[in-house]
Amino acid sequence: MTRRDWIQLAAAGAIAQSVQAAAAPFTLPPLPYAYDALEPYIDAQTMQIHHDKHHQAYVDNLNKAVASEPSLAGKSLDDLLSNLDALPPAVRTQIRNQGGGDANHTLFWNTLTPASKQKMPSGKLAAAIDRTFGSQDKLEAALKASAAGVFGSGWGWLSLDKNGKLAVVSLPNQDSLLSSGNRPLLGIDVWEHAYYLKYQNRRPEYLAAIFHVVNWDFVSARYEEMAR
Ligand SMILES: [Fe+2]
Q1: Within a 13 Å sphere around the CA of 119, how many CA atoms are in the beta-carbon half?
Q2: Could you tell me the distance, in angstroms and rounded to a whole number, from the CA of residue 18 to the centre of ligand 1?
Q3: Which CATH class is domain 115-226?
Q4: Would you say the pTM of this structure is higher than 0.70?
Q5: What's the 202 CA to ligand 1 centre distance in angstroms?
């Protein structure tokens, strides 16, 4: 191989690498704890399949959708989900579903923590919960009712609405609060993939369990950051 051949080959490799990087801008974040860290409330097998298979599939399909539409290159997931109506129709549904799935799950993993480390909301979030819902118990009851009431697959959400107020809402499928100008603080995943192995059809039991492992520290810090 001549030096010139080598340079051409190296350049081709660099281009291939950069094309590959551009084609797959989104990656699966690692779980911030072990698969079994949320036992006995959420079982290890569910966590492994939920994170490694379901979330990975959202990431892979999001990357495929973005790669199919050059005008989306370089856009953040927040940007994409916040401006769904501006997206080319050919990819809009995929970004909504797969991008929503990626964003919702990335937040979800961070809003959970081993029960032994759980602390209740603090600071500004605790005050806002009392002001808005009356108490922590009432907020949790509202979130459980919202999540229990989702028909089929979806999420119950604690959101910060456009006016900076806390609100409990449910959304179907992987729809993102960002798409309606609201911001997610805590999401409760009620797709069957989140609970079926351990709880089968008993969604209320899963909902009672998951509140033992909500990372209110993380949610409190997120609220302080977002409510500024
Ligand atoms: Fe999920």
Answers
A1: 10
A2: 31
A3: alpha beta
A4: yes
A5: 16
